[in-house]
Amino acid sequence: MERQRHDTVNRGSMPARRHWKCWLGIFFALALPRQGLAFAIKKLVRAIRDRKSSPEQVSAAAAKLRDEHLLEDPGDYRFVLNTLTKRTAWKDAVSIWDEMRWIGSELEEPDFVLAISAFAKGSHWQVAVELFQELLGNRPPHLSLGRHREDLQADLRAYTAAIASCKAAGAWQVAVQILQDMEVASVTPDVVTYNTVMSACEKGRDYDAADRVFSEMCKWDISPDKVTYGTLIAACGWGQQWQTAVAYLRHAQESYFGFDMFACTAAISACAKATQWELAISILNERGRLLKGASVRTYNAALSACAAAGKLELALILMEEMQESGITPNFMTYRYAIQSCEDSGCWELALDLMAEMQSVDIEPKQLIFGSVAAACRSAGLEKLAASYDWKVSPG
Length: 395
Fold this sequence. Notes:
Keywords: Repeat. By secondary structure, this protein is mostly helical. It has helices spanning 2-49, 55-67, 74-86, 90-102, 109-121, 125-136, 156-167, 172-184, 191-203, 207-219, 226-238, 242-255, 261-273, 277-285, 296-309, 312-324, 331-339, 347-359, 366-378, 382-392; strands at residues 106-107, 147-148.
């Protein structure tokens, strides 16, 4: 009887063991491909992160993640979106954002911030602002694209990202409006926010608007930084406020930050726009700082002052100093140097400079041909001038 009961128990357990082994086999069968998939995803993400990856490799990795729907976790989407945006691969970042919306991911505030930044990198500032309005709840989401929590709220990062999207386009009115909306929403701007709004005003060539933003910033006791003064000084140039530009430069140097090449370059440019060439050159040369950080942009700003005043000899001296300092001239360098030849009628020198720029693979454009024509015309060489006029307006 005992033997029979023992056999029954053994026989009853055999199917159970087989059943357990079957499920174990299924588990490993499913887990192994999943492990391989996880490895493939990590490899693709690594390719996107790797600074050695070419733009083509980054795009290929992003396309594979998107087209094969390999990402599932919202955090993974966010990580890839952030990495692509930082690498300025904005088209690929936008494609990942579109994928998030297409599969119905529940979107969070950081997702909107990253998408806004991606569209801004691609100069699609209107789309970026529309996304920001959707985040605020002022614009309904597209019915077929994604979803997000109803309690989402825009924070400082979101407002600053939206303002930054307006910067490159010079859409300062929209940037200022978003800044004003922050006060209504009880979101406190910081120095970066104000700097970004002022930069939008500068890009929009509106000094008065930038000055008003700076005044508001001071009213709230937010301390300016180097970027603040550099941006303000650059805005002064568009308003012919060269005295104010120099005053801001001196104030920043004496009270806050010492010597800053960006601010100096902006001040030189402001003086150049007002044809204050002597002051522009003095800022460039003061305290022997000429060779301690001056860039091609700094020299070009000074050269533009020479061009506006027709100071050819000084322009040539600056070009020589550039080359002695190991700074390579660019298109704008030659443009201003050749423009300096116009009033004096130094047409041969203008042609020599144009030949020199071609020898270093910088192609002359209409601005160059126009200056060469003007130099020839000043020398009374009307026929030669006409030949370059034709290149300015062919046909």
